[in-house]
Amino acid sequence: MTNGEEARVSAAVFDAVCAKADAAARAQKTLSRANAESKNELLLAIADALDARADEIAGANELDMIESRDAGMDAGKLDRLLFDVPRVAAAAQGVRHVATLPDPIGEIVRGYNLPNGLRLQQTRVPLGVIGMIYEARPNVTVDVASLCLKSGNAAILRGGHAAERTNAATLAIIRDVLAAHGFDPALVDTVDEYGRDGATAMMEARGHIDVLVPRGGAGLIQAVVRNSKVPVIETGAGNVHIYVDKSGDLGKAIPIIINAKTQRVGVCNAAEKLLVHRDVAADFLPAIARALAEANVELHADDAAYGIIDEAGIDGVNLLAATDEDWDTEYLALTMGVKVVDSLDEAIEHINAHSTGHTESIIAEDYSAVEEFTGRIDSAVVMVNASTRFTDGGVFGFGAELGISTQKMHARGPMGLREMTTTKWIGYGTGQVRG
Amino acid sequence: MTNGEEARVSAAVFDAVCAKADAAARAQKTLSRANAESKNELLLAIADALDARADEIAGANELDMIESRDAGMDAGKLDRLLFDVPRVAAAAQGVRHVATLPDPIGEIVRGYNLPNGLRLQQTRVPLGVIGMIYEARPNVTVDVASLCLKSGNAAILRGGHAAERTNAATLAIIRDVLAAHGFDPALVDTVDEYGRDGATAMMEARGHIDVLVPRGGAGLIQAVVRNSKVPVIETGAGNVHIYVDKSGDLGKAIPIIINAKTQRVGVCNAAEKLLVHRDVAADFLPAIARALAEANVELHADDAAYGIIDEAGIDGVNLLAATDEDWDTEYLALTMGVKVVDSLDEAIEHINAHSTGHTESIIAEDYSAVEEFTGRIDSAVVMVNASTRFTDGGVFGFGAELGISTQKMHARGPMGLREMTTTKWIGYGTGQVRG
User: Fold this and answer.
1) Quick check: is A351 in a domain?
2) Is residue B53 part of a domain?
3) Is residue A433 included in any domain, yes or no?
4) Which protein family is it in (chains A, B) (predicted)?
5) For residues B416 and A316, what is the distance between their CA atoms, to the nearest angstrom?
6) pLDDT digits (tens, 9 = 90+) for B400-430
């Protein structure tokens, strides 16, 4: 087996990664038919083992933390890398929660009899082998492994160099439990030992890996989207907008904007842009800017918004002139782009031109404005008079999520267990032939 | 706008194709909100115009036919290229049929209230711009245009050099009707004027075209799958198996095998391989081989099957020894590979190793064998005691089909209007913020 003329990694690494994926695929054929009871028992045993052996993981994580700190990793990344005993315990609780979720496998999506009596059933089945390329966040290793196992899928992971020792310790425990429960440890495997080449080989492994899900910063995701020959589900980037219509209720607008911008900074469903209708800009913008200033949010405003906010003379406001680049930037910080629009139409056009297709919200009391906005905005989620922070698998009732898809193919929005499946049609006949 | 460092076509062609796709996308934003009534009126007007102006299409087709005949095109391809007045009339009838199908847009896939009162609705919406790369079959132009318009999508088409005049005449009519009905003609466009570069540019046009569907021979499909940066739905290849279990009923097996192999040759759901359990091979194979010989089917048999069939001394049998290559070949001809297997398990393993994942059928009366086969076979459609020829959007009740997906992402099996959609979540709130 070779990767042909377009090889970008050595044949040895490509073959090794494909061999792991093929072993995972063989093991997945058994897992795909396991009932929910046995999958849940497996997950509970993994959770118990993570608790019992948390010291092993935390010890490995200490070494990863020291190396990354010495290499000058910033505080935010170090915090995401930290996987100490309390965090392992929290991850184990997450696994126990996944065990409580309904099993998507076997659901009959559609079923009916053809006129000739053939009984057709479109049945939900696992996707197969899910590849995950993510940055150094060891809890993702546990999350993805538990979601994949519950949905009957195998997982091939590439978890970021900085977390390699932590991920290895975590996977050793998961694989021990798989073996002890009669499942093939090949179901959850890593290509970390091949470094970046491992990730590249995963992208080349079409026919071996069924779907690749990148999770992390925009750079990582775009690199996978551009280079992968395996089908990709694009996740996470959120240049999220809130539009305050001229019919908007200021009493709703302020708490929603503050919540969407500040309740948790640095997540993909946090709001990044505020568009305000010109008719209410003079009334609303000073009040909103005051609330944002109190929450220490820096404002990057277009000319019209700048003028209104500047004139209001708000204490402590941090006001800058927006550049063209602002409208396409996901700040992931206490920063918000602010723009005055002449119409609902301009708001919709601006959002559809600059959004990453994650989540947008309208603040409006006018029925037709709401219909127009929800109908024309081309994003995974459109909120009306509600915070954009609700776009989340947990909030949507999925129990847990693999990520939030910003693409249109296969899954759009939060991806839970159901989105990790495909279907198979089964036709039960009694000798039917086509006339 | 450029296609960056990985450019394989000239920037001019890439920009021109993207400009067409972007114009299509703008037009699609209006179409996506059109109600079913106006879309159906549009389709009926297109059907009427195709009938009224069939001479224009047939005249252009005559020139295409002459050129292709002179260039030595084989009879099968010439037949697929033919688009004379009766065939245009048949295509117009197909458009009228699409007008009668239910509109998938607006369907609420899931809807429920969150505990905080936010009303969540997952709503079916069009995919956007669908790119289609197909071989010289002018009826596909009409089929795809009508399916795309009904499902609220725009279409960018590359239809094969040999049919360029025919497709241009067809599209001119469709675009005239679009304009006359107040729709933007950019909704259905071709990149045929750029030749092969047009197809290459479509594959590079990520962010401009939402999904690319190749339809045609295995070579075309694999070239698109390998090279496209736009998400692809893989269609069509069918190395289709029928397995006769030791519990199989010979009375059902023979008509099903003959129907699946011979009712229509050269289509993707026609059976290509026959696996027979060793315990019944001596009884069943001579009878089946006799029926296949009468239907002029050439048999490529493994050693065991060859021995049994040869010994039976069947009149007129055309029996050859199978090679390893046979098991991975889609003949699309009156040829069938025949193999004796030792067990149900061997049959399943063989099929999962060699199938293209389209359709397989088991002939069996044993309950456990049926459960095992339907559960373990990893194909889009699994039939039990029924012909594989039923895998078809029309037969499944979809009314029409874009193709048959053999991949697991997004859609699997026959693709009708529903499979040409994605979803959008809408959350109707009253001021909710996340705690």
Assistant:
1) yes
2) yes
3) no
4) Belongs to the gamma-glutamyl phosphate reductase family.
5) 58
6) 789 999 999 999 999 999 999 999 999 999 9
**Is residue A191 domain-shared with residue A315, that is, in the same domain?**
no
Tell me the angle at which helices A36-52 and A85-100 cross, rounded to the nearest 10 degrees: 170
- What tokens were used for B260? 């699946």
Structural domain boundaries enclosing A33: 9-235+411-428
Please tell me whether residues B9 and B97 are part of one structural domain. yes
Q: Which two tokens stand for residue B335?
A: 């040829």
The DSSP 8-state label assigned to residue B102 in this structure reads P
Same domain, A253 and A357: yes
pLDDT of residue A266: 84
CATH number for B28 = 3.40.605.10
pLDDT band at A217 (very low <50, low <70, confident <90, very high): confident
Mind spelling out the 3-state secondary structure of B263-278?
CCCCCCCCEEEEEEEH
Burial-class residue B252 by CB neighbours within 10 Å (0-12, 13-18, 19+).
Answer: buried
Residue B6 pLDDT level (bands cut at 50, 70, 90): very low
ipTM of the complex: 0.93
The per-residue pLDDT for B5 is 39
Count of structural domains, chain A: 2
| Token reading at A76 | 């935010």
Q: How many CB pairs under 8 A join A and B?
A: 194
Task: Pick the residue from chain A with its C-alpha nearest to B383.
Answer: A427
Nearest CB to B383 within list A225, A379, A427? A427
Q: Does A111 touch chain B (CB under 8 A)?
A: no
Residues B13, B197: contact at Cβ < 8 Å? Answer: yes
Q: Is the CB of residue B221 less than 8 Å away from at least one CB of chain A?
A: no
| Mutation site for B-interface testing, chosen from A120, A224, A268, A433 by largest number of B Cβ within 10 Å | A433
Tell me the per-residue pLDDT of A237-280, one tens digit each, with 9 for 90 and over: 899 999 999 999 999 999 999 999 999 988 899 999 999 999 99
Task: Check if B110 contacts A (Cβ < 8 Å).
Answer: no
Residues of B with Cβ-Cβ distance to A231 under 8 angstroms: 231-232, 407, 409
Average pLDDT over residues B237-264: 97
Decide if A425 and B407 are in contact by the 8 Å CB cutoff: no
Residues of chain B positioned with their CB less than 8 A from the CB of A433 = 255-256, 258-260, 263, 386-387, 389
Residue tagged 């030791």 (tokens): B246
